[in-house]
Design a protein that fits this description.
This protein is α+β, with helices and mostly antiparallel strands. The protein has six helices and twelve strands. The strands form four sheets. A five-stranded mixed beta sheet has the order 1-12-2-8-9. A three-stranded antiparallel beta sheet has the order 4-5-6. Helix 1 packs across helix 5 and helix 3 packs across helix 4.
Length: about 250
């Protein structure tokens, strides 16, 4: 690998994750089996879906009683009223509810479609919900994997978000442990002598997005290993990536 370059590698052989699965043990075994045991400076990007599954954040849809609002909305837009009801329950605030799309703010402060409620790659007439504290979930994984391997690593939990004014979806970081969420450049001087005033790079989001390139949506690859970016290790949390309401021009 050239100096300064990074590798983004899929982690294969994870198998199906069920509630109660020791995710760190399964992930560590998969890394060993494919010949990429953890090294100092490695960063793992783990999809929210398998974290939610392992933590039991799954709901049987036949146990959900839709409200009148969920029933009316679902009928109007040909949606499943049980899923709509889950979205409403998981939302702290509805940002936009129009043309069959619900954009909401989750309890974590994330702005996304359907409050993170997802029925893909679940099966059994079930839906997954976001972990209650993705940063804590990332830290548990980081601590367990770091202890087992002896390596200093970082963990990012990712989810797929749409973007205002842009087509397509991309992965973003919703949980971070041992990785800088933001890299600050304020006060530094660019090559022309211009002093940077407000520049921050969303390192954790960029890593999550890069990892998606080797995961895919139908390939059964829920984890990626980023190698060669040890400089990004350090304190960080996904909460840093949520813009405060006081500085958000769109609230």
């Amino acid at each position: 690998m050239p100096a300064g370059g990074i590798q983004v590698l899929p982690v294969l052989g994870m198998g199906e994750i069920e509630p109660g699965t020791d995710l760190a043990a399964v992930l560590g075994a998969a890394l060993e089996e494919q010949g990429t045991p953890l090294q100092d400076g490695d960063i793992l990007v783990v999809t929210q879906k398998i974290v939610s599954k392992a933590e039991g954040r799954m709901v049987q849809l036949d146990e959900i009683e839709p409200s009148a609002l969920a029933t009316e909305w679902a009928a109007r837009w040909t949606k499943d009223p049980r899923v709509v009801e889950l979205v409403l329950r998981e939302s702290r605030r509805i940002v936009r509810m129009e043309r069959g799309v619900i954009i909401s703010e989750t309890r974590h402060g994330l702005i996304c479609a359907n409050a993170g409620v997802d029925c893909s790659n679940v099966g059994g007439d079930r839906a997954t919900l976001l972990p209650p504290d993705p940063d804590a979930s990332a830290e548990r994984l980081r601590a367990a994997l770091g202890q087992a391997s002896g390596a200093r690593i970082g963990v990012i939990i990712s989810d797929t978000f749409g973007r205002a004014w842009r087509e397509g979806q991309t992965n973003v970081a919703i949980g971070v442990a041992g990785v800088e969420a933001l890299r600050h450049f304020e006060g530094q001087v660019d090559p022309t002598g211009y002093e940077l005033r407000v520049t921050m790079l969303a390192t954790a989001d960029e890593l999550a997005s890069a990892a998606e390139l080797v995961m895919g949506k139908v390939d059964g690859v829920p984890v990626a290993l980023v190698r060669g970016l040890g400089r990004a290790l350090g304190p960080g949390s996904a909460r840093e990536l949520v813009r405060p309401a006081a500085t958000d021009l769109f609230r």
